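Subject: complex prediction, re-run

Hi both,

The earlier run crashed halfway through, so I resubmitted it with identical inputs.
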Amino acid sequence: MAEDYTKQIHRCFNCGYCKFDSTYSEFNCPSYVRFRFDTYSTSGRLWLINAWLRGEVQWDEHLGEILYTCVTCRNCAEQCIMRFSNDLVDWIIAARRDMMEKEQGKIPQRVGSFLEEIYRIGNPLKARMPRGEWADGVPGYSKGAEYLLYVGCLGSFDGKAREMAKSIATLLGLAGVSFGVLGDDEGCCGNEVRTLGEQTLFELLANNNIQQFRELGVRKVIAISPHSYHAMKNLYPALGADFEVLHYTQLLEQLVRDGQLKTRDTQAKVAYHDPCYLGRYNGIYDTPRQVLRGVPGLELVEMPRERQDAFCCGGGSGNFAMDLLEGSRDSPNRVRVREAYESGAAVLAVACPSCLTMLTSAVESEGLDDKLVVSDIGQILKQALVT
Amino acid sequence: MADISSALTEIVGKGYVSQQAQERYFYSQDPGLMQPHEPDYVVLPASADEVQRVVKLANEQKIPVVPRGGGLSLTGLAIPQRGGILVDMRRMDRILEVNERARYAVVEGGTSEGRIIAYLERHHPTLRHSIPDAPPQATLVGNAAIHGQGRLAQQYGFTSDMVTGLEVVLPTGELCKIGSCSMSPYWFSKGPPLPDMSGLFLGWIGTSGIITKIGFKLYPRKKLRDVETFVTDLPDLIPDIVFKLTHLEMVEDINIWFQPLPLMFKGNHHMDIYLTGDTDEELEFKRRMVWNALSEYIEAKDGGFMWLMPDVKPTFMEMPQKSIARFADVRKGGGFQYAGPIILVEKYPDCARKTEELGSKYKLGYSVMARMIGRGHCMMFGFAFTFNRANSDEMDRVRKALDEAIEFSLEHGGLPWKPTVDEQRAAMDMMDPNTLKLFGKLRKALDPNGIMNPGNWEVS
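This time it finished cleanly. Structure:
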C-alpha cells in the first residue's frame, strides 16, 4: 500500500469537497474545523505528503502534528468526488507508516507515548491496574459460551467506558445470553495502532488476539467499540481470523426485538451521535436508532449532521487518549455537544466508548453539565428496563 | 520579523498565525499551473476589526497583504507574488441577514458558496443566488472579486452585477461601506442612486482592499428545474441558436460543452438549456417554446435534442456541477486549467476550432465549456486542458496551449477573465492609454504604499 500511495497521491486536485458535509452547510472535517488552516484538511495533508515525497518540505514536528491530527473519520472519503475517494484515509495511514520508517521514528511525542504504552503495558491510557478489574461479577469466557464480549482498552480502563461495558454485560446477563469476557487476559485490538502507522505492532496485537480466540474456541465476538468491531470484522480476516463479529447494538437490537429485553415508558429527548467506525466505515446507521426507538416514550431527535454526514467527536486514531485536537472552542467534541444541545436533546446517545469519553469531557468544557447527559445506548436501555 | 509575528498573534490570537514551512508551502500556490511564491505569514482573522488591524500593521510596515477565499482561481490570483501576509478569510463565514421580501442577503467576506447554498435551501427555500460551478469552498466574495459567473449569469449577468453592497477594509486600514448600506440600514443597492463606488473593488482581485462583508441579490427559486440538451455538429450555428434562445427570455442558464471523449461526444457541440417553473404546465410551455425556437435546425437535420438517461441527468442538474472538478482526474493526474476569456458569442466557432487545434498541437486532453452571460451579450469561453501533476512535460504543454488560447482570444476582441499576471500585462498593453493612466491613479490613491496583492494589475 505504501508504494501505491506514492504513485497516486498527486491526483488530489484540492477542490475541497472533502471538507464539507453532503449539503455543504458546514465544514465537516474535524481537524480543519479545529485549526482552520487548509493544511489540516485532507487535501492539505495530501499535498504536503506529496511535497515531502518530492523533497519540497522536510519532516518536522509541525508536519507530524498536521499528519496525526487526522482522526481517520472518513468524512473526506464520503464527500470526495473523485474516483480514488475510497483510498484517501489509507493514503494518509500509508504516509504515516512510510514517514515512521524513512524519518527514523520521528513522530509527535504524544503519538510515540501512545504506541510505547501499548507495546509496554498493553493499553495507551497508562493504566497499571489489572485489565479485568472492571469485570467484577461478570462471567469470564469459558469454552462453549456463545459470545465473547470484547471491551477493549477504554472499556477496561476509562471510568465512563467501564460503566458502559458493565451496562452491556448486565443487559446480556439479564437477557440470558451465553457470554463471557477475557478480563486480565484481554489484549488491545490494535485498530488505533494501525491508523497511526505502526503496522508491525498492529499485526502483533491482532495475531495474538486471533490465536487466543482460536485456542479458546471463540466463534462470535461482541465488540463494544466500533473501532474494535471494524478491525476484527474487516482487517483480522486477512490475518487468518474466521470468527463472526457483532457490534453490541446489533445484539441489543435483536434482544429487544425478540422480547428478551423489555423496556418501560421513559420520557426523554435523545439525539444519537453516529460513530465514524460504525457508520461511515461499516454502514450501520439504523440499528442503534432501532434500539432507541424500541424504548416507549423516548423521543429520538436528529442533529443537523447525521448518518454519513455525522460530525466526528475527534477521538479516532488514538485521539481519545492523545487529544491532539484539544484546547479550543472549535475542538470537534465541543462543536458536537453544542450541536446536540441546540437540537433540543437532553441526552446525547453514543455507541462507542471513544465518543463517550470525548463528548462527556466536552459537556463539562462547554458548561452543559446540567443540560445535556452523554450516555451510551446500553446505559439508556438498562435504565429503561422492566426489571 | 519576530515582532511582526507577535503583532499578528496579538491581533488574531495564538493558533491563527503561521510562519511554518507547511503553511507557507501550501498557501504559495493554487491548483493551477502558476509559479508558486511563499507568503511570510498566513493569518486567519475572525472579524473586520482584525482585518483592519492586520492591514494597518502591513501598511505601516509596508508589507504586502494578499486576501484569499477558496484559493480556486487556478490563475494564481491569491499567490503572494511578493511574499508578505496572506489573509485566509474563511473564519469570517457568518450569514448576517436575509431580507426575503427585498431579495438580498448579507454575508461575511469569507463565507463559502456551499454555506450559502445550504442556508438558503434550509431557511429560505423560495430564494436562490447565482451558484457558480466552482467547488463549494469558493467564497462569494472571491467570485464577485473576479467577476465570476454562476447559474443565473444568462439571466442577470456577472456575480459582480448582483452585488448590493460592500464593507471594505481600504489599503490604509479604514473600514468603508459602499452602496445603500453607507447611509441606510438596508443593503439593497451597491450604488444607485448614489455615485457607484463598488467598481473600485469588484474585479480588482484584492488589489484595492479587502471585502469583509458583501450584500448580494437573491432571485426566485422555482419549484421545478429541468434541462434539455441540444446537439449540433455545426459550430457556426451556435451564435444564431443562442440568439434565438435568449430572445425567448424563458431560459435559466445556457452552457455549451464540446469534448473529444468519450468518443460518442466527439465533434458535437452540446448546449445544456436549463428551464425552471412553478408548475408542470409552466415548465412544459417553456420547453415547447425552446423546441419551437430550434425546430428549423431539427428539420434541416442540423441538430437535435439528446435524450439524457436517468442515471446521467442528475450530473447535469447538480449545483455546483461536480463534473467540472472531476475533469482534473481524467488522466488520473489531478490537474486542469482553463483560459476563460469573456468574448462575444459570435466568436464561438473560431474559439472551438482553436481549442481542437491546440489539443492536437500539444497532444492534450481538452474540453470546451462556454457559459452565456446576459441575454447573449457575451460569454465565458473556457479553453480547458487537463494535465497530470506528476508529468512536468505535459504541464508545460498545457501552459503553452493556454498562452496561445489567450493570445488568440485577445486578438478576437475578448478580455481575459481572472487573468494571470502575464495576461494582466498583456491586457494593460492593449488598453487605451488614458484608461490605463486613470487605472494607475486610482490604484495609487487607494493604496499609496502598494501593499495590496502586489504584482497584480500593476500599472508601470
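The mean pLDDT of chain B is 97.

- K.
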